[in-house]
Amino acid sequence: MSPLEFLDARSSVRAFDPNAKISTEEIKNILSHAANAPSSNNFQPWKVIVIKNKAKQKILKNFSADQKQVEDSSAVFLIFGDKSTYDVQKIMNFNIRNKIIRQDELREKTERVTAYLQLHPEDAENEGLRFDIGLFSMNLMYVVRAFGYESVPMRGVFFDKIMDYLNIPKTYEPILMLPVGKALQPGFPHLRYPIDEFSNIIE
């Protein structure tokens, strides 16, 4: 399968093998690769809670319109955004510590990012958060496939009840539930509008 064929073959799978296991080491490896997704000024505002416990997944299923894939998946990834990570000083310390920038660049980089956020404050609020988490989530879905699993992105769930049940900080913004597992059957085929309906190439 070519890289493009691999990308095109991703689909939303809703029938998982309930006996398929995923190791904690695999989950950590998947998240490590998924975190290579881009984000505004490299703030990396994602938070992920992963549940791979059938009893807990059954309860999550009750909060998810009784959708079977939540319980049958090997693990459920809950993806949140955290606006507190839009912290200029924190990311600059990270950049210095990891030699992304030099000490003599610190002031200029700090001023540049600060000025950008003053010009576009929405990028440090829910609008920017959802954009950044969307980039991470799509990357995560492709990485999941690279590890031999499939997934289905879900928004039709009671995130407030899930957060109460799992005692998740209220400062987290719930974005997506992503059940992950071994497919018992493929997802629906891709049918999309022709490119002429959504694009315009200017030469």
TrEMBL record:
Gene3D superfamilies in UniProt: NADH Oxidase
Asked whether the keyword Oxidoreductase is assigned, the reply is yes
Which parts of the sequence belong to the Nitroreductase domain?
Answer: 9-182
**Has UniProt tagged this entry with the keyword Magnesium?**
no
Database matches in InterPro entries = Nitroreductase, Nitroreductase-like
UniProt xrefs under CDD domains: MhqN-like
- For this UniProt record, give its keywords in alphabetical order, as a comma-separated list: Oxidoreductase
Q: Name one GO molecular function term.
A: oxidoreductase activity
Q: Which residues form a coiled coil?
A: none
Similarity section: Belongs to the nitroreductase family.
Q: What is this protein called?
A: Nitroreductase family protein
